[in-house]
Amino acid sequence: MKANDALNKMMEWMTAVGKTHKTAENTWRAVAHFLENMELVDEDTANIDEIILNDYINNNKKQTTVSTRRFKLSAIRTFFNFCVAKGWMVGNPATLVKVDIRKVPHRMRQAKKKEAFTPEEVKYITANTEGFWRAAILIAVETGLRIGDIVQLEWDCFSLTHMEVWTDKKDKKVKLKMSSKLRKVIMGIPKEDDEFLFPDERLRYLLPEQGGRGTRTWFATTFKRMMERFGIEGKTFHCLRVTHASSRKDKGEDIEQIAKDLAHSSSKTTTKHYIT
Questions:
Q1: What is the per-residue pLDDT across 185-227, written as a single tens digit (0 to 9) for each?
Q2: CB within 8 A of 113, min separation 6: which ones?
Q3: Sorting pLDDT into bands at 50, 70 and 90, what band is 85?
Q4: Secondary structure string (H, E, C) spanning 158-176
């Protein structure tokens, strides 16, 4: 069985047995990256061994943290378990592989707290972007939403006073107040689709089995290039979420409410990772 076909079969199985959308999606992304990175998409699963997997997981040139490597290994182990159960492989090579912390650069061994954009940086990047990106940046600053939630926003999410969103990562509903700035941004978005604010970007983000193109890495890559062009280093789109939380805390807002609006289960997460 070709690896890519086996992955699609596993996704069908995960859906059939009731795995959550987020669990299935994260597993698919991790395994797909492994297969693509190691040029194994069309390889027979029986030919993938522990040496190939170890080269991928413990590559000392990869700028990935220990936790990320462990998650990827776990997802790949699930994939191989499925293949073994289907009789496409004799044994699971992932059982012989462990994350070698010595192969992880020292600066990547602990999660680094993301920085917030300064007010001057936000002003500059919004003044020098347009269309989808300008709207997405402003929405992120005002709401703290992730890029995946922003591209899937529906017109029905908004009322005169609030916006309600089911967050993609946590599958939780958040109800946020409509600030005058946010209302102005939403009113300025051309209505090209009756249901979604950003129909093209939504299709780019969604996975193929969801009817999309599955090219979501485009968002991170494009944003990074934009920031490099603006002379802003080391800040990702997710840093706008930190910007939102930190700005609200600086204004004296309650940390528990900020955590709730970010769909965090604990305010400790908010304080530790999102308040600068």
A1: 999 999 999 999 999 999 999 877 778 887 888 998 899 999 9
A2: 272, 273, 276
A3: very high
A4: ECCCEEEEECCCCCCEEEE
Domains defined along the chain, listed by start: 3-108 (1.10.150), 119-274 (1.10.443.10)
pLDDT in tens, 20-31: 777 888 899 999
- What is the number of other CB atoms lying within 10 angstroms of the CB of residue 32? 21
The 3-class secondary structure across 219-266, one letter per residue, is HHHHHHHHHHHCCCCCCCCCHHHHHHHHHHHHCCCCHHHHHHHCCCCC
What pLDDT sits at residue 211?
85
Q: Which two tokens stand for residue 96?
A: 């012989």
Exposure string for 120-152, b = 16+ CB within 10 A, e = fewer: ebbeebbeebeebbbbbbbbbbbbbbbbbbbbb
Q: Find the angle CA(143)-CA(145)-CA(149) to the nearest 5 degrees.
A: 135
Both structure tokens of 235: 């800040």
Residue among 273, 22, 65 at smallest CA distance from 170: 22
pLDDT above 60 for 18: yes
Would the pTM of this model clear 0.85, i.e. be above it? no
Residue 250 reports pLDDT greater than 90: yes
Q: Where are the beta strands (DSSP E) in the chain?
A: 162-166, 173-177
Are the C-beta atoms of residues 75 and 119 closer than 8 Å to each other?
no
C-alpha span between 145 and 140 (Å, rounded): 5
Average pLDDT over residues 232-255: 94
Cα-to-chain-centroid distance, residue 26: 9
Which amino acid, one-letter code, is at 148? G
